[in-house]
Amino acid sequence: MRKYLTLSFISLSLCCAFLVAGCASKPTDEEMNQLSNLKSEVSSLEKQISEKQRSKSDLEKQIADQNSKLQQCQSDQEAVKKGLGK
Amino acid sequence: MKQKTTYWMFAVVVLFILCNCQQLVAQEMTKDQWQSEMSSYTTRRTNLQTQLSKLNDDVSSLQSQLNKLGDDIKACEDAMYAMLGVTRADVEAYEKELADMEKRVAELQRLSDAELMNYRDEISRINDRLNAMAASKIAMIPSYGNRVKSLQDKVAALMKSLSREKSYTVGTWSRDRDCLWNIAKKKDIYDNAWLWPKIWQGNRDKIRDPDIIKPKWVLKIPEGKDLSKEEKSAANSYYRKKAAAAPAYQ
Fold first, then answer.
1. Model pLDDT, residue B50
2. What is the pLDDT at residue B81?
3. Among all residues of chain B, which has the CA nearest to that of A30?
4. How far is the CA of B134 from the CAs of B30, B88, B151, B159, in angstroms?
5. Which of residues 57-86 of A touch B (CB under 8 A)?
6. Distance from B40 to chain A by nearest Cα, in Å?
């Protein structure tokens, strides 16, 4: 009988501990919405950054092309000047 | 025995309750956890906003750099065209014609010598046009002049392969079945057996009788797709002789 009582006591204590943990203070629905909005804002920012990085690298490539085109044009201009004897 | 069964049942019930409680706790977020996540996401948002703002500045600066480069190139080209006394439209037309020619010459380069014979006139026209383009003022611009020069070299190579005389070394009858008819029939010769008199007439110094050719003879293969008047006449004379020599049927 005593053994039975001890076992019951331990079980009851464990149940109470879990119940207490379960009933700890929880965020409200409004707060949860706030968190969810913040998460989607972060995700949208990450997307925007990745797009910007892509367009930045495109622009860098175009600039490199245009730079070499400008250099080519300048060297052509020099050759034309020489050719015309100017 | 009864007591043991009760213990067991009790233990099972307790375990069941424990599992459920644990699941409930795991699913729901505590205020502390919420607070910690909010703070972590807020920091992340601030960092990302700073990063995005920096990227926006970079992109806008690169864009204006690109626009400036475009303007510089245009100014450089305009100055060069003015020196030469040509307009941008002239240069664009020149560029287009040159690009079309480059494409066509690349196609012609892929043809075999035999196929190339059919484009002799076109190659000659391209060559004349390239000479005219090389004499143009626009060819003084090295990026165009070099392209014209390179194309001229390619066309010269095409013309060289056109002028190259083809030849054929006669094999043995037993192994190669070589006779004028069979040689003319070959794909890389004329691909037409009826053109055999061309080979005969082109090699009169060697071939007295078109029925007799000897192994190891190197025969010239005159170009052309049709028989000339002389070749036709020689062929007719050969056929007449053959007909006369054939025994008459009674």
1. 97
2. 96
3. B34
4. 82, 18, 10, 18
5. 59-60, 62-63, 66-67, 69-70, 72-77, 79-81, 83-84, 86
6. 10
